[in-house]
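Protocol step 4 of 6: structure prediction from sequence.
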Amino acid sequence: MRETRDSIKSIWGDRTPYRGEWPPRVDARILEEPDRWVQSACVLCSNGCGVDIGVKDGRIVGIRGREVDRINRGRLGPKGLHGWVANNSPDRLTRPLIREDGTLREASWDEVMDTIVRKSREIREEYTGDAIAFYSTGQIFIEEYYTLAVIAKAGLGTSQTDGNTRLCTATAAAALRETFGADGQTGSYADYDTTDCIFLVGHNMSSTQTVQWARILDRIQGPDPPEIVVLDPRTTATAREATVHLAPRIGTALAVLNGIERLFIENDWIDHAFIKEHTVGFERLKGIVDQYTPERVQEISGVPPETLMRAAEVLGTAPTLVSSVLQGIYQSNQATATACQVNNINLLRGLIARPGCAVLQFNGQPTAQNNRECGCNGEQPGFRNPLNPQHMAELARIWNIDPLQLPYGLPAHIMEIMNHAEEGTVRMLWVIGTNPAVSLPDLPRVREILAKHDLFVIVQDCFMTETAELADIILPAAIWGEKTGTFTNTDRTVHISYKA
């Protein structure tokens, strides 16, 4: 075996200080010398690092970062260096299983597919297409999501479609739509290469996107390093690198952001021309944040006035700014309002849509963006609005179907799907690459619903999960490295991942 570093002891690897173009550094972990290398990208976090997969005798035996890839320039984090070993796990599901007399047994693909088709037809004829639901993931490829969307919406006509990506990062999608009108990121990771200031809000990047954090560490040690403002109640490895660390009481980040924006306006650290030409609602925003004096912010959040004013000065005078948000906000009180206020930080400064200026509402999962792009949760494919008749007519034309075949209205979210299954109006649930018997709220109730005799449960996964143990049919799934497809990372870079 050979590896370029012990990624447990050295999470982020050696430094390559820079400003402008990130120098390459190729990380690798190889158990046996490969016969060939196959181009791919890592799907173990939302960073989406380019990789080459080492293959020998039909098995994955190693991995290395792709030096030419713009996302990582050859670097890999601990997950990327080690996670691929799961592909060779002896615990993988390899044969379809079907429940008979209460027990799962092995079955042929013909038997399980015939059963699925027969049950689908019976349910659709006796009830409607809305009696069939799909709950998907942030782990599969664009082509798979889009196929699922076509089958569910154009084929079955069901509105019962959701993904765990909404449970995970629904705030990101909602905040991007609210501020910018569409669920798409506003910048690129390359903006970190030249920005003068980085604002991390509820985003412990040192743990969640370790390769991106290596990029920022390299900037910190390079010429003209960026100033860093971190808003996080905890003193993390990320916060320890901050110029200013805002550590509010849990659940009070919104008050801190309101206070920063008040100081922007008070000190005239705003771009009046940009606000006039490209935004709406400034006067209303001004009226809201005017109440958040430094003293009131301290009363609510515990952040001292001098710390708040220093953070506002750094953010308010930086020539360029990249702001980012993740689960510390998404899973907190007033999450969407808080994420929107991060968007407004950049908009007030007019620091958007140019080099070194962006807001990145990060995803948690590697292909979460694709679930949303392809319409497998709360939207229609291509970010089309299910409440917009023109969007729906366009979709029907593309799919060559009668518009009346499409499900109108907002798709059900997973807890609504569970309610419908409990009531008996959803009779089939197809679960793809996620484990709701562990991840959903109110687990005793969820497990009772999944075990109902009148709910036909199909699980498509690579391992036997708690949800799979309750299924009527289990379909063993090919995973990363075993199929060819494409996926979009947080900054909307599309990678191809070839079958190894």
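Step 5 (inspection) to follow. Residues 2-90 form a domain with the N-terminal domain of TfIIb fold (CATH 2.20.25.90).
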